[in-house]
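Supplementary Methods S3. Input chains for the assembly prediction are listed below.
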Amino acid sequence: MIEARDLVKSYGDVRALDGLGFAVAPGTIFGLLGPNGAGKSTTVKVLTTLTRPDGGSATVAGHDVLHDPGKVRRAIGVVAQRSGVDRDLTGRENVKLQGHLQGMRGAELDRRVDELMEQLGLAEAARRVARTYSGGMQRRLDIAMGLVHRPRVLFLDEPTTGLDPDVRAAMWHEIGRLRSDEGLTILLTTHYMEEADRLASQLAIIDRGRVVAEGSPAELKASLRGDAVHVELEGGEANGNVHTALDGVPGLHEVLIEGRAVHARVEDGARAVPAVLAALDAHRVPVATVTVARPSLDDVYLRYAGRSFAQAEN
Amino acid sequence: MTAISDTWALTIRDLLRLWRQPWFIGIVLVQPVIWLLLFGELFKRVVDIPGFTGGDYKQYLVPGVLVMTTFFSSGWNGMSTIEDLERGVTDRLLVTPARRWSLIVGRLGQNAVQALVQSIVIVAMALAIGVSFDGGVLGVVALVVVALLLGTAFAALSNALALVARREESLIGAVSFLQLPLTFLSTAFMQEQLIPSWVGTVADYNPVNWAVVAGREAVEASPDWGTVAGYSGLLVVFALLCTMLATRAFRAYQAQV
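Predicted C-alpha coordinates for the full assembly:
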Protein backbone atom coordinates (compact mmCIF):
# COMPACT_ATOMS: atom_id res chain seq x y z
CA MET A 1 0.00 0.00 0.00
CA ILE A 2 2.98 2.25 0.64
CA GLU A 3 6.36 1.72 -0.91
CA ALA A 4 9.34 3.99 -0.41
CA ARG A 5 12.61 3.37 -2.23
CA ASP A 6 15.98 5.01 -1.60
CA LEU A 7 14.52 8.33 -0.48
CA VAL A 8 17.06 11.09 -0.16
CA LYS A 9 16.35 14.62 1.00
CA SER A 10 18.68 17.32 2.29
CA TYR A 11 17.97 20.64 3.92
CA GLY A 12 21.12 22.66 3.32
CA ASP A 13 23.92 20.62 4.84
CA VAL A 14 21.58 18.42 6.83
CA ARG A 15 20.75 15.10 5.25
CA ALA A 16 17.26 14.35 6.58
CA LEU A 17 16.73 11.21 4.47
CA ASP A 18 19.68 9.12 3.41
CA GLY A 19 18.48 6.24 1.25
CA LEU A 20 15.42 5.39 3.29
CA GLY A 21 13.08 2.66 2.07
CA PHE A 22 10.33 0.36 3.34
CA ALA A 23 7.05 -1.24 2.31
CA VAL A 24 3.70 -1.28 4.09
CA ALA A 25 1.13 -4.03 3.54
CA PRO A 26 -2.57 -3.11 3.18
CA GLY A 27 -4.66 -3.06 6.34
CA THR A 28 -1.75 -2.90 8.75
CA ILE A 29 -0.31 -0.35 11.09
CA PHE A 30 3.29 0.30 10.18
CA GLY A 31 5.40 2.14 12.72
CA LEU A 32 8.32 4.41 11.94
CA LEU A 33 10.22 4.59 15.19
CA GLY A 34 13.11 6.90 15.81
CA PRO A 35 14.33 9.81 17.90
CA ASN A 36 13.53 13.42 17.04
CA GLY A 37 15.39 14.44 13.91
CA ALA A 38 15.74 10.89 12.60
CA GLY A 39 13.77 11.77 9.46
CA LYS A 40 10.29 10.55 10.38
CA SER A 41 8.44 13.77 9.61
CA THR A 42 10.41 14.32 6.41
CA THR A 43 9.40 10.82 5.29
CA VAL A 44 5.75 11.66 5.94
CA LYS A 45 6.07 14.97 4.09
CA VAL A 46 7.49 13.19 1.04
CA LEU A 47 4.90 10.38 1.08
CA THR A 48 2.00 12.83 1.49
CA THR A 49 3.26 14.99 -1.44
CA LEU A 50 3.92 18.04 0.71
CA THR A 51 7.54 18.11 -0.38
CA ARG A 52 9.62 16.42 -3.06
CA PRO A 53 12.58 14.18 -2.33
CA ASP A 54 15.97 14.95 -3.90
CA GLY A 55 16.26 11.31 -4.90
CA GLY A 56 14.42 7.99 -4.78
CA SER A 57 10.79 7.20 -5.46
CA ALA A 58 7.62 6.23 -3.63
CA THR A 59 4.12 5.01 -4.34
CA VAL A 60 1.12 5.38 -2.07
CA ALA A 61 -2.13 3.49 -2.76
CA GLY A 62 -0.70 2.56 -6.15
CA HIS A 63 0.09 6.14 -7.23
CA ASP A 64 3.49 7.67 -7.67
CA VAL A 65 3.98 10.58 -5.25
CA LEU A 66 6.12 12.48 -7.73
CA HIS A 67 4.19 11.92 -10.96
CA ASP A 68 0.66 11.63 -9.69
CA PRO A 69 0.40 13.73 -6.51
CA GLY A 70 -3.28 14.55 -7.15
CA LYS A 71 -4.33 10.91 -6.99
CA VAL A 72 -2.21 10.31 -3.92
CA ARG A 73 -3.90 13.27 -2.18
CA ARG A 74 -7.35 11.81 -2.82
CA ALA A 75 -6.36 8.46 -1.36
CA ILE A 76 -4.71 9.64 1.82
CA GLY A 77 -5.62 11.27 5.10
CA VAL A 78 -2.91 13.17 6.92
CA VAL A 79 -2.58 14.03 10.58
CA ALA A 80 0.62 16.04 10.67
CA GLN A 81 2.88 16.37 13.66
CA ARG A 82 1.83 19.99 14.00
CA SER A 83 -1.92 20.37 14.34
CA GLY A 84 -3.62 21.85 11.27
CA VAL A 85 -6.72 23.07 13.07
CA ASP A 86 -8.07 26.49 12.12
CA ARG A 87 -8.71 27.91 15.56
CA ASP A 88 -11.13 30.55 14.34
CA LEU A 89 -13.54 28.01 12.87
CA THR A 90 -15.76 25.64 14.82
CA GLY A 91 -14.83 21.96 14.92
CA ARG A 92 -17.60 21.20 12.50
CA GLU A 93 -16.60 23.95 10.06
CA ASN A 94 -13.04 22.65 10.07
CA VAL A 95 -14.03 19.12 9.14
CA LYS A 96 -16.63 20.28 6.64
CA LEU A 97 -14.18 22.50 4.75
CA GLN A 98 -11.69 19.64 4.66
CA GLY A 99 -14.37 17.32 3.26
CA HIS A 100 -15.35 19.92 0.69
CA LEU A 101 -11.76 20.26 -0.52
CA GLN A 102 -11.69 16.46 -0.81
CA GLY A 103 -14.64 16.69 -3.19
CA MET A 104 -17.53 15.85 -0.85
CA ARG A 105 -20.77 17.82 -1.02
CA GLY A 106 -24.21 18.33 0.47
CA ALA A 107 -26.07 15.87 2.66
CA GLU A 108 -23.43 13.16 2.33
CA LEU A 109 -20.80 15.54 3.68
CA ASP A 110 -23.05 16.71 6.52
CA ARG A 111 -23.80 13.13 7.55
CA ARG A 112 -20.14 12.18 7.46
CA VAL A 113 -19.11 15.21 9.54
CA ASP A 114 -21.75 14.45 12.19
CA GLU A 115 -20.74 10.82 12.26
CA LEU A 116 -17.06 11.68 12.79
CA MET A 117 -17.74 14.27 15.47
CA GLU A 118 -19.79 11.65 17.29
CA GLN A 119 -17.21 8.92 16.82
CA LEU A 120 -14.33 11.05 18.08
CA GLY A 121 -16.25 12.39 21.05
CA LEU A 122 -16.51 15.92 19.68
CA ALA A 123 -20.27 16.04 19.09
CA GLU A 124 -20.95 18.36 22.00
CA ALA A 125 -18.13 20.73 21.12
CA ALA A 126 -18.82 20.58 17.38
CA ARG A 127 -20.28 24.07 17.18
CA ARG A 128 -17.68 25.70 19.37
CA VAL A 129 -14.72 27.60 17.94
CA ALA A 130 -11.66 25.30 17.99
CA ARG A 131 -9.72 27.92 19.94
CA THR A 132 -11.63 26.69 23.02
CA TYR A 133 -10.57 23.04 22.53
CA SER A 134 -8.08 21.24 24.75
CA GLY A 135 -4.93 19.76 23.21
CA GLY A 136 -6.49 16.31 23.09
CA MET A 137 -9.65 17.64 21.44
CA GLN A 138 -7.66 19.49 18.78
CA ARG A 139 -5.76 16.31 18.06
CA ARG A 140 -9.01 14.36 17.64
CA LEU A 141 -10.26 17.14 15.37
CA ASP A 142 -7.10 16.67 13.29
CA ILE A 143 -7.94 12.99 13.01
CA ALA A 144 -11.52 13.76 12.02
CA MET A 145 -10.18 16.00 9.24
CA GLY A 146 -7.82 13.25 8.13
CA LEU A 147 -10.65 10.74 7.95
CA VAL A 148 -13.51 12.78 6.49
CA HIS A 149 -13.18 11.56 2.90
CA ARG A 150 -12.70 7.90 3.93
CA PRO A 151 -9.08 7.64 2.82
CA ARG A 152 -7.47 4.27 2.18
CA VAL A 153 -4.22 5.26 3.83
CA LEU A 154 -3.88 7.34 6.98
CA PHE A 155 -0.66 9.06 7.99
CA LEU A 156 -0.31 9.76 11.69
CA ASP A 157 2.81 11.79 12.42
CA GLU A 158 3.48 11.67 16.16
CA PRO A 159 -0.23 11.67 16.97
CA THR A 160 0.17 11.54 20.75
CA THR A 161 3.19 13.77 21.34
CA GLY A 162 2.39 16.30 24.05
CA LEU A 163 -0.80 14.59 25.20
CA ASP A 164 -1.57 13.52 28.76
CA PRO A 165 -1.14 9.79 29.48
CA ASP A 166 -4.88 9.08 29.75
CA VAL A 167 -5.62 11.02 26.55
CA ARG A 168 -2.82 9.08 24.89
CA ALA A 169 -4.34 5.76 25.95
CA ALA A 170 -7.70 6.81 24.48
CA MET A 171 -5.96 7.80 21.26
CA TRP A 172 -4.26 4.39 21.05
CA HIS A 173 -7.61 2.73 21.41
CA GLU A 174 -9.03 4.88 18.60
CA ILE A 175 -6.08 4.18 16.27
CA GLY A 176 -6.39 0.43 16.86
CA ARG A 177 -10.10 0.64 16.13
CA LEU A 178 -9.51 2.45 12.82
CA ARG A 179 -7.35 -0.38 11.60
CA SER A 180 -9.57 -3.23 12.76
CA ASP A 181 -13.02 -1.74 12.03
CA GLU A 182 -12.31 0.30 8.93
CA GLY A 183 -9.47 -1.67 7.41
CA LEU A 184 -7.30 1.40 7.06
CA THR A 185 -3.63 1.15 6.28
CA ILE A 186 -1.89 3.37 8.80
CA LEU A 187 1.61 4.76 8.78
CA LEU A 188 2.40 5.85 12.31
CA THR A 189 5.51 7.73 13.31
CA THR A 190 6.45 7.94 16.93
CA HIS A 191 9.36 8.38 19.25
CA TYR A 192 7.56 6.50 22.01
CA MET A 193 8.78 2.90 22.15
CA GLU A 194 5.69 1.87 24.01
CA GLU A 195 3.41 3.33 21.37
CA ALA A 196 5.19 1.51 18.56
CA ASP A 197 5.19 -1.71 20.56
CA ARG A 198 1.49 -1.42 21.32
CA LEU A 199 0.11 -0.37 17.93
CA ALA A 200 2.37 -1.39 15.09
CA SER A 201 2.39 -4.84 13.54
CA GLN A 202 5.49 -3.96 11.55
CA LEU A 203 8.19 -1.51 12.50
CA ALA A 204 11.06 0.25 10.84
CA ILE A 205 13.57 1.72 13.21
CA ILE A 206 15.13 4.77 11.65
CA ASP A 207 18.19 6.69 12.60
CA ARG A 208 19.89 9.55 10.75
CA GLY A 209 17.62 9.19 7.73
CA ARG A 210 18.07 5.44 7.24
CA VAL A 211 16.18 2.31 8.22
CA VAL A 212 18.47 0.46 10.60
CA ALA A 213 16.14 -2.43 11.44
CA GLU A 214 12.78 -3.72 10.26
CA GLY A 215 10.34 -6.37 11.47
CA SER A 216 7.49 -6.95 13.89
CA PRO A 217 8.10 -5.71 17.43
CA ALA A 218 8.34 -9.35 18.60
CA GLU A 219 10.82 -10.27 15.85
CA LEU A 220 12.97 -7.28 16.57
CA LYS A 221 13.06 -8.06 20.25
CA ALA A 222 13.72 -11.76 19.56
CA SER A 223 16.64 -10.78 17.35
CA LEU A 224 18.44 -9.70 20.48
CA ARG A 225 20.05 -12.53 22.34
CA GLY A 226 19.39 -12.74 26.04
CA ASP A 227 18.78 -9.95 28.52
CA ALA A 228 19.79 -6.33 28.70
CA VAL A 229 21.99 -5.24 31.59
CA HIS A 230 22.10 -1.55 32.41
CA VAL A 231 24.58 -0.23 34.92
CA GLU A 232 24.52 3.30 36.28
CA LEU A 233 27.93 4.34 37.61
CA GLU A 234 28.44 6.48 40.66
CA GLY A 235 30.37 9.73 40.41
CA GLY A 236 31.99 10.96 37.21
CA GLU A 237 32.18 9.58 33.70
CA ALA A 238 33.20 6.01 33.05
CA ASN A 239 36.88 5.54 32.24
CA GLY A 240 38.97 2.83 30.57
CA ASN A 241 38.70 0.70 33.69
CA VAL A 242 35.09 -0.10 32.90
CA HIS A 243 35.92 -1.70 29.56
CA THR A 244 38.80 -3.64 31.05
CA ALA A 245 36.62 -4.82 33.91
CA LEU A 246 33.71 -5.91 31.72
CA ASP A 247 35.89 -7.62 29.11
CA GLY A 248 36.66 -10.14 31.82
CA VAL A 249 33.01 -11.09 32.42
CA PRO A 250 32.16 -14.24 30.46
CA GLY A 251 29.14 -14.09 28.12
CA LEU A 252 28.82 -10.28 28.24
CA HIS A 253 28.67 -8.66 24.80
CA GLU A 254 27.60 -5.51 22.97
CA VAL A 255 29.01 -3.32 25.72
CA LEU A 256 28.25 0.37 25.13
CA ILE A 257 29.26 3.20 27.43
CA GLU A 258 27.49 6.58 27.32
CA GLY A 259 28.62 8.91 30.07
CA ARG A 260 27.71 7.28 33.35
CA ALA A 261 25.43 4.71 31.72
CA VAL A 262 26.72 1.32 30.67
CA HIS A 263 24.61 -0.96 28.45
CA ALA A 264 25.41 -4.60 27.72
CA ARG A 265 23.74 -7.83 26.69
CA VAL A 266 24.11 -11.25 28.27
CA GLU A 267 22.46 -14.68 27.91
CA ASP A 268 21.19 -14.95 31.47
CA GLY A 269 20.91 -11.57 33.15
CA ALA A 270 20.25 -12.71 36.69
CA ARG A 271 23.28 -14.92 36.76
CA ALA A 272 25.57 -12.29 35.22
CA VAL A 273 24.83 -9.50 37.70
CA PRO A 274 27.09 -10.77 40.51
CA ALA A 275 29.95 -11.27 38.05
CA VAL A 276 29.49 -7.75 36.62
CA LEU A 277 29.45 -6.20 40.08
CA ALA A 278 32.47 -8.19 41.19
CA ALA A 279 34.45 -7.22 38.10
CA LEU A 280 33.64 -3.52 38.48
CA ASP A 281 34.45 -3.64 42.18
CA ALA A 282 37.80 -5.30 41.47
CA HIS A 283 38.65 -2.36 39.19
CA ARG A 284 37.42 0.16 41.80
CA VAL A 285 34.50 1.40 39.68
CA PRO A 286 31.69 2.52 42.03
CA VAL A 287 28.21 1.42 40.93
CA ALA A 288 24.93 3.25 41.67
CA THR A 289 22.34 0.90 40.17
CA VAL A 290 22.15 -2.28 38.12
CA THR A 291 19.04 -3.39 36.23
CA VAL A 292 18.33 -6.47 34.18
CA ALA A 293 15.47 -6.58 31.70
CA ARG A 294 14.00 -8.65 28.93
CA PRO A 295 14.71 -7.02 25.58
CA SER A 296 12.59 -3.93 24.92
CA LEU A 297 12.39 -1.82 21.79
CA ASP A 298 14.77 0.55 23.58
CA ASP A 299 17.32 -2.22 23.46
CA VAL A 300 16.51 -2.92 19.83
CA TYR A 301 17.18 0.72 19.05
CA LEU A 302 20.42 0.62 21.02
CA ARG A 303 21.51 -2.50 19.17
CA TYR A 304 20.83 -1.22 15.65
CA ALA A 305 21.46 2.51 15.96
CA GLY A 306 24.61 2.06 18.04
CA ARG A 307 23.48 4.54 20.67
CA SER A 308 20.72 4.67 23.21
CA PHE A 309 17.45 6.32 22.39
CA ALA A 310 17.85 8.88 25.17
CA GLN A 311 21.28 9.84 23.80
CA ALA A 312 19.97 10.22 20.25
CA GLU A 313 17.20 12.54 21.42
CA ASN A 314 19.77 15.02 22.75
CA MET B 1 -16.08 23.68 -11.48
CA THR B 2 -14.70 21.90 -8.43
CA ALA B 3 -11.91 24.44 -8.24
CA ILE B 4 -14.36 27.34 -8.27
CA SER B 5 -16.43 25.71 -5.57
CA ASP B 6 -13.27 25.13 -3.51
CA THR B 7 -12.27 28.76 -3.99
CA TRP B 8 -15.64 29.91 -2.79
CA ALA B 9 -15.51 27.61 0.26
CA LEU B 10 -12.12 29.10 1.14
CA THR B 11 -13.46 32.64 0.71
CA ILE B 12 -16.32 31.79 3.10
CA ARG B 13 -13.79 30.40 5.57
CA ASP B 14 -11.79 33.64 5.55
CA LEU B 15 -14.95 35.75 5.84
CA LEU B 16 -16.05 33.69 8.85
CA ARG B 17 -12.70 34.25 10.50
CA LEU B 18 -12.96 37.98 9.83
CA TRP B 19 -16.52 38.05 11.12
CA ARG B 20 -15.37 36.52 14.41
CA GLN B 21 -13.01 39.40 15.10
CA PRO B 22 -15.40 42.26 15.91
CA TRP B 23 -12.65 44.73 16.80
CA PHE B 24 -11.04 44.12 13.44
CA ILE B 25 -14.30 44.79 11.65
CA GLY B 26 -14.56 47.99 13.67
CA ILE B 27 -11.15 49.15 12.49
CA VAL B 28 -11.87 48.19 8.90
CA LEU B 29 -15.01 50.30 8.89
CA VAL B 30 -13.88 53.27 10.96
CA GLN B 31 -10.49 53.77 9.34
CA PRO B 32 -11.71 54.95 5.94
CA VAL B 33 -14.06 57.41 7.61
CA ILE B 34 -11.13 58.84 9.55
CA TRP B 35 -9.00 59.15 6.41
CA LEU B 36 -11.78 60.95 4.63
CA LEU B 37 -12.62 63.38 7.43
CA LEU B 38 -9.03 63.93 8.55
CA PHE B 39 -7.50 64.51 5.13
CA GLY B 40 -10.55 66.52 4.11
CA GLU B 41 -10.00 68.91 6.99
CA LEU B 42 -6.21 68.90 7.01
CA PHE B 43 -5.82 69.75 3.33
CA LYS B 44 -8.94 71.92 3.03
CA ARG B 45 -6.96 74.97 1.89
CA VAL B 46 -5.27 73.06 -0.94
CA VAL B 47 -7.95 74.48 -3.25
CA ASP B 48 -6.48 77.95 -2.63
CA ILE B 49 -3.18 77.00 -4.28
CA PRO B 50 -2.96 78.77 -7.62
CA GLY B 51 -3.48 76.25 -10.37
CA PHE B 52 -5.78 73.92 -8.46
CA THR B 53 -8.94 73.36 -10.43
CA GLY B 54 -12.25 72.80 -8.71
CA GLY B 55 -13.58 74.49 -5.62
CA ASP B 56 -14.00 71.71 -3.06
CA TYR B 57 -11.10 69.55 -1.88
CA LYS B 58 -13.37 66.81 -0.45
CA GLN B 59 -14.80 66.39 -3.90
CA TYR B 60 -11.27 65.85 -5.24
CA LEU B 61 -10.21 63.65 -2.32
CA VAL B 62 -12.89 60.94 -2.28
CA PRO B 63 -11.59 58.72 -5.12
CA GLY B 64 -8.07 59.00 -3.69
CA VAL B 65 -9.15 57.98 -0.21
CA LEU B 66 -11.22 55.11 -1.57
CA VAL B 67 -8.29 53.75 -3.57
CA MET B 68 -5.87 54.33 -0.70
CA THR B 69 -8.08 52.51 1.79
CA THR B 70 -8.40 49.46 -0.44
CA PHE B 71 -4.69 49.52 -1.20
CA PHE B 72 -3.77 49.78 2.50
CA SER B 73 -6.00 47.03 3.81
CA SER B 74 -5.18 44.66 0.93
CA GLY B 75 -1.49 44.86 1.73
CA TRP B 76 -2.17 43.05 4.99
CA ASN B 77 -3.97 40.13 3.33
CA GLY B 78 -0.83 37.97 3.56
CA MET B 79 -1.00 38.09 7.36
CA SER B 80 -3.69 35.38 7.27
CA THR B 81 -1.35 33.27 5.18
CA ILE B 82 1.43 33.67 7.73
CA GLU B 83 -0.97 32.66 10.47
CA ASP B 84 -1.98 29.61 8.42
CA LEU B 85 1.66 28.70 7.89
CA GLU B 86 2.37 28.97 11.61
CA ARG B 87 -0.70 26.97 12.56
CA GLY B 88 -0.04 24.13 10.13
CA VAL B 89 -3.22 24.96 8.16
CA THR B 90 -1.31 25.63 4.93
CA ASP B 91 0.40 22.23 5.09
CA ARG B 92 -2.97 20.58 5.66
CA LEU B 93 -4.54 22.38 2.68
CA LEU B 94 -1.59 21.59 0.43
CA VAL B 95 -2.07 17.84 0.85
CA THR B 96 -5.70 18.01 -0.28
CA PRO B 97 -6.56 17.86 -4.00
CA ALA B 98 -7.48 21.60 -3.93
CA ARG B 99 -5.70 23.60 -6.62
CA ARG B 100 -2.95 25.98 -5.52
CA TRP B 101 -4.61 28.93 -7.22
CA SER B 102 -7.82 28.19 -5.30
CA LEU B 103 -5.93 28.67 -2.05
CA ILE B 104 -4.79 32.11 -3.25
CA VAL B 105 -7.93 33.24 -5.03
CA GLY B 106 -10.10 32.12 -2.10
CA ARG B 107 -8.19 34.56 0.06
CA LEU B 108 -8.40 37.28 -2.61
CA GLY B 109 -12.17 36.77 -2.61
CA GLN B 110 -12.35 37.57 1.07
CA ASN B 111 -10.16 40.61 0.46
CA ALA B 112 -12.46 41.83 -2.30
CA VAL B 113 -15.56 41.48 -0.11
CA GLN B 114 -13.83 43.41 2.65
CA ALA B 115 -12.72 46.14 0.25
CA LEU B 116 -16.20 46.33 -1.21
CA VAL B 117 -17.73 46.94 2.22
CA GLN B 118 -15.12 49.61 2.94
CA SER B 119 -15.86 51.28 -0.38
CA ILE B 120 -19.56 51.36 0.35
CA VAL B 121 -18.84 53.01 3.71
CA ILE B 122 -16.67 55.64 2.05
CA VAL B 123 -19.22 56.41 -0.65
CA ALA B 124 -21.98 56.69 1.95
CA MET B 125 -19.82 58.93 4.12
CA ALA B 126 -18.89 61.07 1.13
CA LEU B 127 -22.54 61.56 0.24
CA ALA B 128 -23.24 62.44 3.88
CA ILE B 129 -20.66 65.25 3.89
CA GLY B 130 -22.00 66.70 0.69
CA VAL B 131 -19.79 65.21 -1.99
CA SER B 132 -21.62 64.66 -5.26
CA PHE B 133 -20.79 61.95 -7.76
CA ASP B 134 -21.48 63.64 -11.06
CA GLY B 135 -20.92 60.48 -13.08
CA GLY B 136 -23.82 58.78 -11.32
CA VAL B 137 -24.06 55.19 -10.19
CA LEU B 138 -22.08 53.86 -13.15
CA GLY B 139 -19.16 56.12 -12.28
CA VAL B 140 -19.18 55.04 -8.65
CA VAL B 141 -19.29 51.37 -9.67
CA ALA B 142 -16.32 51.88 -12.00
CA LEU B 143 -14.40 53.65 -9.22
CA VAL B 144 -15.02 50.75 -6.84
CA VAL B 145 -14.05 48.19 -9.50
CA VAL B 146 -10.67 49.80 -10.22
CA ALA B 147 -10.03 50.03 -6.46
CA LEU B 148 -10.83 46.31 -6.10
CA LEU B 149 -8.52 45.45 -8.99
CA LEU B 150 -5.69 47.34 -7.33
CA GLY B 151 -6.54 45.70 -3.98
CA THR B 152 -6.56 42.25 -5.55
CA ALA B 153 -3.13 42.80 -7.05
CA PHE B 154 -1.55 43.96 -3.81
CA ALA B 155 -3.34 41.30 -1.75
CA ALA B 156 -1.88 38.67 -4.09
CA LEU B 157 1.56 40.27 -3.79
CA SER B 158 1.18 40.25 -0.01
CA ASN B 159 0.42 36.51 -0.09
CA ALA B 160 3.36 35.84 -2.37
CA LEU B 161 5.63 37.65 0.05
CA ALA B 162 4.08 35.81 3.01
CA LEU B 163 4.85 32.44 1.42
CA VAL B 164 8.42 33.39 0.59
CA ALA B 165 9.36 35.30 3.75
CA ARG B 166 7.16 33.22 6.11
CA ARG B 167 7.67 35.76 8.88
CA GLU B 168 5.29 38.32 10.22
CA GLU B 169 8.06 40.88 10.77
CA SER B 170 9.24 40.67 7.17
CA LEU B 171 5.76 41.15 5.81
CA ILE B 172 4.97 44.05 8.14
CA GLY B 173 8.27 45.67 7.19
CA ALA B 174 7.76 45.31 3.46
CA VAL B 175 4.13 46.45 3.50
CA SER B 176 4.79 49.49 5.68
CA PHE B 177 7.76 50.36 3.51
CA LEU B 178 5.64 50.41 0.35
CA GLN B 179 2.32 51.83 1.48
CA LEU B 180 2.99 55.52 2.04
CA PRO B 181 5.49 56.10 -0.80
CA LEU B 182 3.23 54.42 -3.34
CA THR B 183 0.26 56.43 -2.07
CA PHE B 184 2.06 59.76 -2.18
CA LEU B 185 3.76 59.06 -5.50
CA SER B 186 0.35 59.51 -7.06
CA THR B 187 -2.29 62.12 -7.62
CA ALA B 188 -4.39 60.84 -4.72
CA PHE B 189 -4.07 64.08 -2.77
CA MET B 190 -2.68 66.60 -5.21
CA GLN B 191 -3.52 67.42 -8.78
CA GLU B 192 -1.07 66.43 -11.44
CA GLN B 193 -0.21 70.01 -12.48
CA LEU B 194 0.83 70.81 -8.89
CA ILE B 195 3.16 67.91 -8.17
CA PRO B 196 6.87 67.91 -9.11
CA SER B 197 7.41 66.56 -12.59
CA TRP B 198 9.58 63.66 -11.41
CA VAL B 199 6.76 62.53 -9.11
CA GLY B 200 4.45 62.69 -12.09
CA THR B 201 6.85 60.53 -14.09
CA VAL B 202 7.09 57.94 -11.34
CA ALA B 203 3.32 58.03 -10.90
CA ASP B 204 2.87 56.96 -14.52
CA TYR B 205 4.35 53.59 -13.55
CA ASN B 206 2.64 53.36 -10.17
CA PRO B 207 -0.39 51.02 -10.13
CA VAL B 208 -1.84 53.03 -7.23
CA ASN B 209 -1.90 56.06 -9.49
CA TRP B 210 -3.48 54.06 -12.33
CA ALA B 211 -6.37 53.28 -10.01
CA VAL B 212 -6.59 56.86 -8.68
CA VAL B 213 -6.62 58.40 -12.17
CA ALA B 214 -9.10 55.86 -13.58
CA GLY B 215 -11.37 56.09 -10.53
CA ARG B 216 -11.40 59.88 -10.47
CA GLU B 217 -12.09 60.02 -14.20
CA ALA B 218 -14.99 57.57 -13.82
CA VAL B 219 -16.87 59.77 -11.35
CA GLU B 220 -16.57 62.92 -13.49
CA ALA B 221 -19.70 64.36 -15.02
CA SER B 222 -18.67 63.23 -18.50
CA PRO B 223 -15.85 60.69 -18.09
CA ASP B 224 -13.35 59.79 -20.76
CA TRP B 225 -14.08 56.05 -20.73
CA GLY B 226 -11.05 55.37 -22.88
CA THR B 227 -8.79 56.52 -20.04
CA VAL B 228 -10.76 54.47 -17.51
CA ALA B 229 -10.62 51.35 -19.70
CA GLY B 230 -6.92 51.78 -20.43
CA TYR B 231 -5.86 51.96 -16.81
CA SER B 232 -8.35 49.24 -15.83
CA GLY B 233 -6.76 46.99 -18.44
CA LEU B 234 -3.33 47.64 -16.97
CA LEU B 235 -4.68 46.85 -13.51
CA VAL B 236 -6.25 43.59 -14.70
CA VAL B 237 -2.93 42.47 -16.17
CA PHE B 238 -1.08 43.52 -13.02
CA ALA B 239 -3.56 41.68 -10.77
CA LEU B 240 -3.29 38.52 -12.89
CA LEU B 241 0.49 38.60 -12.80
CA CYS B 242 0.50 39.05 -9.02
CA THR B 243 -1.97 36.18 -8.58
CA MET B 244 0.19 33.91 -10.72
CA LEU B 245 3.23 34.95 -8.72
CA ALA B 246 1.46 34.11 -5.44
CA THR B 247 0.41 30.71 -6.80
CA ARG B 248 3.98 30.02 -7.85
CA ALA B 249 5.18 31.04 -4.38
CA PHE B 250 3.71 27.78 -3.02
CA ARG B 251 6.49 26.00 -4.91
CA ALA B 252 9.11 28.09 -3.17
CA TYR B 253 7.45 27.28 0.13
CA GLN B 254 7.15 23.55 -0.57
CA ALA B 255 10.80 23.35 -1.52
CA GLN B 256 11.61 24.48 2.01
CA VAL B 257 9.33 22.30 4.14
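The radius of gyration of chain A is 23 Å. Chain A has two domains: 2-220, 225-294.
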